[in-house]
Amino acid sequence: MAFCTALLVSGCAGTSVVQTSGNTAIVTARAAPVCGGVGAERVAVREAAIVTIKGGFDKYVIYDAAAQNTVTARQVPGTYTTMGTVNGGMLNATTTYQPGPTIYSGHHSQAFAIKMFKANDPASANAVDARTTLGPEWPKLIKQGSLTTCT
Questions:
Q1: Confidence of residue 105 (pLDDT cuts 50, 70, 90)
Q2: Which value, in Å, is the radius of gyration of the alpha carbons in the chain?
């Protein structure tokens, strides 16, 4: 649990946005292994909503998406401890192996290509409402800017 908390405090996610036209953008989110693919997706969805509102729009549609997982796990070598006793010329020994820690590296990433719409645009009928996506705290999230955690 301390490991997860440390990651959340230091920031386990990041985002980038490339504006591809006046009303389209590519939103990319990258998240630490502990966040999982769902965490990266959650960050990308929220960032898409933030970009939409900051751009002066109200709704968006994800028209293309890509995901990547580069997470690997590596077991660090452990240690052996041997304890023995000598009794009547006989040696009795026991060796215990203590595995080393598992180190996770890499990331999960999610990219969305989005098209943004004004609320009164007839083409926005099936689009996702950005403010609803962010919830009642949306003004705070807009002010905060880019997301740094996957929670």
A1: very high
A2: 24
Q: In the chain, where do the E strands start and end? A: 13-21, 24-31, 59-69, 72-75, 79-87, 90-98, 102-105, 108-117, 128-129
Domain ranges of the chain: 2-73+104-144
**Does the reported pTM lie above 0.90?**
no
* C-alpha to C-alpha distances, 80 to 84, 100, 101, nearest whole angstrom: 13, 11, 14
Query: Residue for token digits 């070598």?
Result: 77
CB 48 within 8 A of CB 141: no
Per residue in 1-20, pLDDT (tens digit) is: 334 333 443 568 999 999 99
CB atoms under 10 Å from CB of 124, counted, come to 19
pLDDT attached to residue 100:
96
Is 100 exposed, middle or buried, given 0-12, 13-18 or 19+ CB atoms closer than 10 A? exposed
**Neighbouring residues of 148: CB distance < 8 A, sequence distance ≥ 6:** 11, 12, 13, 14
Asked if residue 127 lies in contact with residue 62, where contact means CB atoms within 8 angstroms, the answer is: no
19, two tokens: 């504006």
